[in-house]
Amino acid sequence: MKRKQKKWILIAAVFFCIIPAVSAQTVLSVEEAVRLGLENNLSLERTKLETDQKKRESNRSWNGLIPSVSASASASHATTLIGDPSPASIDEWIPGFSLSASMTLTTSIFTNIEQARLQYQAGLISYETARQTLELQVRKAFYQLLLLEANISLTEQSIGTAQSRYDQTAALARHGQASALEELSARVDLENMKPTLRTVQSGYNNALESFKQVIGIPLDEEITLAGSLDDTISFINTENIQKNGESASVTSLRMSLEIIEAQLKAAKLQAYTPSVSVSWNTSPSYSNSTWSDSGSFTARLTFSLDSLLPWSATKTQIDSLKTSVAIYQSNLAEAKMNSDLQVRQLVRTIEQSLETIEALKLNVDLAEQSYAMYEESYQKGTTDLQNLRSAADSLSTAQNRVQEELYNLLSATLDLENELNVPFGTLGRI
Does residue 430 sit within a domain? Predict the structure, then answer.
């Protein structure tokens, strides 16, 4: 009796030890994977730190309007030459202090404020672009893993079919209804599929580790992906696509153009407008029971004449900035045309993929019917192993093509949403 109690206690202990290990496995949906990627990705974190730095610089860019202020204190003692007959008050210490303030007002102060603001906006665009690129990468990697999982499942299914076919052939061979060559051929087919399965599994493991690195989770953490490619798309509507926004590349170029134009404006103002300098200081000192002050107030207006010369460094800088503006304008126009072309091509790819999927699904139905008929005929001995093998290969190929085309459709849809700069899922339920 005691031995039975110990046995059940041991079984219960093993059971309760297994439960935490099983429950520790993380189930990830695509949205959860995106959330983890946005929270944990190191590259995105660095981009955010750079953006925060530009924000601080923009918030503090007005500090050019703060005057420079300094204060000092002193004590002086008169000295005399040896033998100087004048007693003077050589033992008197003369205290004093000084306070000064100065400020130079130029147009560059205000243009620097504007440029800092534009740099911060450019940083925000860079961060949003990096964020969107990361989300696109995570979603594509997630669906690629689903495709690889489907390939593994189909390969295992093919191996199971080959195993069943080999068992049937071996049974028929034992009863003299199949030749030894047919049995050997069925065994060869079975063994040839096993390396394919290992190759697909290895590719899946490599892709899975890369995926874990992108979303920032430990490589040894066990995860399960929720969903399959068959249920990832509910609908995709490409009939009323309106490009209300613009691609991230176009937005980035537009902001770069604004920054260059601001730099050109700043260079012109600095060359053709004067600067105003204002300074004030007071230096009171106490001597012979009397306070005296040698302070002053100065205002100065300065205008650079050499900047008016056509060969001056300032004029050369202005000409260079003008050229840069023209180059960015050309790049922006080209980027708009390329983006529009990319949208048109992706729309056609999606429409073609939708039609292809419908045809491929019909092919799967036909291949399943064909395989079932050949399998029945083979069991009855009215067809040979080669025909059954060919039907199985056709079915496996048709199923694989459906999965691959589903991934192509998802990938093209994500690329189109990224190019249109709209939230992922806008064009379809994915």
Answer: no
**Alpha-carbon gap, residue 198 to 155, rounded angstroms:** 10
Range of the domain at 151: 30-73+93-420
The DSSP secondary structure of 301-360, one letter per residue, reads EE--SGGGSTTSHHHHHHHHHHHHHHHHHHHHHHHHHHHHHHHHHHHHHHHHHHHHHHHH
- CATH code of the domain covering residue 62: 1.20.1600.10
Distance CA 220, CA 93 (A): 78
93 — phi, psi (to 5°)? -95, 130
Q: Give the Cα-Cα-Cα angle 384, 385, 386 (nearest 5 degrees).
A: 95
Strands 93-105 and 275-282, bridge-based pairing: antiparallel
Q: Tell me the per-residue pLDDT of 18-56, one tens digit each, with 9 for 90 and over.
A: 444 434 568 888 889 999 999 888 888 898 898 899 889
312's CB contacts (< 8 A; 6+ apart) are 306
Give 88: exposed, middle or buried? Use CB within 10 Å, 0-12, 13-18, 19+: exposed
Q: Would residue 61 count as lying in a domain?
A: yes
Task: Return the H-helix or E-strand segment holding 254.
Answer: helix 248-272
Count: domains in the chain: 1
The answer to whether position 333 is within a domain reads yes
Q: Which secondary-structure segment (H or E) carries 282? A: strand 275-282
What are 305-345's pLDDT values in tens digits? Answer: 877 778 888 888 889 999 999 999 999 999 999 999 998 89
Q: Which amino acid is at 265?
A: K
Looking at the domain assignment, is residue 43 inside a domain? Answer: yes
